[in-house]
Each structure stands twice: as C-alpha cells, then as structure tokens.
C-alpha cells in the first residue's frame, strides 16, 4: 500500500541539512522525561546501583542518561542486559523496563547480574519520535563510531563495564504510527518510495538471524501469552513484511543492521514488539507484557 508523499523534501531526493532542520523544527515536547522516568529512577537508588552513563544536549534540552545495575555485583554470575526506549516513542518499552526494575529485579539477583537502561532516547520519549534530533534512527546505529549519541553511549557503557552478556532483551513496540508517520518519513529522508506493511495485532519477537535460539524465543512468548495475545501471521505467513521462523517470531541480521539486540555477542538475544493500538490490549497490558517477556527469558535461562 503506497502512501501519499511526505510533506518534507522532494520525491526521490534524499534529505539534506535544510530538510532535516525543517523536520526538527516541527517536533514538539509532549511529555516529560523528568516526571515519567527520572523521578522513578531516583527512587531506585536505595535498592540498586544507579549510574549516569552519559548526557545528551539537544536544542537547549539537557538529558542525563542512567543505567540501573545490580547492587551486589558478582563476577561469577551471568549478566543480563535489558534495554528500553531505544525508540523513545515506544512507551511500554520504557515503562516495562522501569516496572521490571521496581517489582521483579531483586527476586532474580541471586542468579543474575543486571544492567538496565530504561530510556536510551529521552528526546524521542518526550517528542514521541523514532529518530533522534538529527533524524537518525538509534536502532540502526549500534556499531563502532555510531552517528547516534544515544547508541554510542550505550556501547561505551557496556565496554566500560567489561562484562560478557549471557542475554539481552530489548523492549520495543510496533504502532499504527509506524505506517502513518515513521515509514513515510524514512522513505522521504532516504529519497525512496514508501510501501507500508501490515501492522500485526499482538505481541511478537524479532531475533538475530545469525543466532535465532528459537527455544528461548518460545519460552519468552509462552510467558507473554499469559498477559496478552501473540500476533498471528498475515495471509502471506509474514509479520511486518518478513517471513516467520516460528509463530510469533521473525529474524533480522542484527549485526548488519546495527540493531540494539546485536550490540554484543550475547548467546540469547531478542527484541520484543508490543502492539499498543490493539483493541484487545490496554496500555497496562502492554507494559505487563514487556515485564513478562523479561521474566520468560530469565526463567528459561535459570
């Protein structure tokens, strides 16, 4: 389904600096990182090791970035990374990470060390955006010399900690705005023709095509299914235009695409995808589904 022309740029011509500036000037703050995220992280300091791992400064806006780590770190335990808000507009990923920390993390610390970055892209969170202010997608930028500060700072954090990750759960959403805004904007930015995919109604996972670990993915889905429905494949047996590996799971080349789930060589990695616009799921269910995905992963690994 081809979409109408995006209102910025010339069809077939990639954006230059002026088009990116025009796009940036149209963005507006719609919610508060301080109120929604930082206030919660402040409360975690009594129970966990809360570390500022970097700062973002965009257009007179200052965003400190925090990771929440296991308080009593034990080098003999395996380490699990949980990332949220790589795409800041994907609300349940941010709040799912925060809820996991608050309600579940301590009960698993006897077995695992944790690193949790609840909101990697705070400007995107506040303006409800997929990109950062430079019109760069952080979730295509997890590689050496990354052009996205958001991605580069997480990579630097993991390198500085010097840990080998057993597992990584990256919390995301697929929303109706992927088709109405973000894919048309991407096509315009890149000078391409946009064709939309069907938005799956339900929860699904994206794994690394080079290391699928499908039994692990199934364990994650089994826990999520207690909370919300798993997305069925479309009539072509696909999800977001990609052939399914097993029901509820597709795979992408994580390293080649610079995806967050490919930032390490973790044996077990997955990207969650919740559908918050479903008539069959509430915002609370979407958040709980993200927590369930992490629990399903941990119970499998345990």
UniProtKB/TrEMBL annotation:
PROSITE patterns xref list: PEPTIDASE_M14
Record SUPFAM superfamilies: Zn-dependent exopeptidases (SSF53187)
Under the heading InterPro entries, the entry gives: Peptidase_M14
Q: Name all Peptidase M14 domain ranges.
A: 29-302
The record's comment on protein family reads: Belongs to the peptidase M14 family.
Spell out the protein name for this chain.
Answer: Zn-dependent enzyme from deacylase/carboxypeptidase superfamily protein
According to its UniProt entry, this protein's organism is Idiomarina baltica OS145
């Amino acid at each position: 389904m081809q979409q109408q022309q995006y209102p910025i740029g010339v069809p077939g011509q990639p954006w230059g600096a002026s088009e990116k500036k025009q796009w940036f000037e149209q963005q507006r703050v719609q919610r508060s990182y301080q109120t929604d995220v930082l206030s919660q992280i402040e409360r975690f300091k009594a129970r966990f090791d809360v570390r500022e791992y970097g700062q973002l400064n965009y257009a007179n806006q200052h965003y400190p970035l925090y990771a929440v780590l296991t308080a009593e770190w034990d080098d003999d335990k395996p380490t699990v990374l949980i990332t949220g808000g790589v795409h800041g507009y994907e609300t349940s990923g941010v709040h799912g990470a925060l809820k996991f920390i608050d309600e579940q993390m301590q009960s698993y610390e006897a077995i695992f060390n944790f690193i949790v970055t609840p909101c990697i892209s705070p400007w995107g969170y506040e303006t409800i955006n997929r990109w950062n202010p430079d019109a760069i997608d952080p979730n295509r930028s997890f590689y050496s010399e990354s052009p996205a500060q958001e991605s580069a700072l997480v990579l630097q954090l993991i390198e500085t900690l010097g840990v080998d990750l057993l597992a990584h759960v990256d919390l995301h959403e697929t929303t109706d705005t992927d088709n109405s805004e973000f894919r048309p904007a991407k096509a315009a930015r890149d000078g391409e023709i946009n064709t939309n995919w069907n938005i799956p109604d339900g929860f699904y996972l994206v794994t690394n095509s080079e290391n699928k670990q499908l039994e692990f993915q199934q364990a994650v889905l089994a826990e999520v299914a207690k909370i919300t429905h798993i997305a069925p494949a479309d009539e072509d047996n696909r999800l977001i235009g990609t052939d399914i590996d097993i029901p509820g799971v597709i795979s992408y080349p994580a390293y080649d695409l610079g995806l967050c789930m490919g930032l390490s060589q973790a044996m077990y990695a997955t990207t969650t995808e919740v559908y918050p616009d479903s008539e069959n799921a509430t915002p609370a269910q979407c958040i709980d589904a993200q927590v369930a995905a992490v629990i399903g992963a941990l119970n499998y690994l345990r």
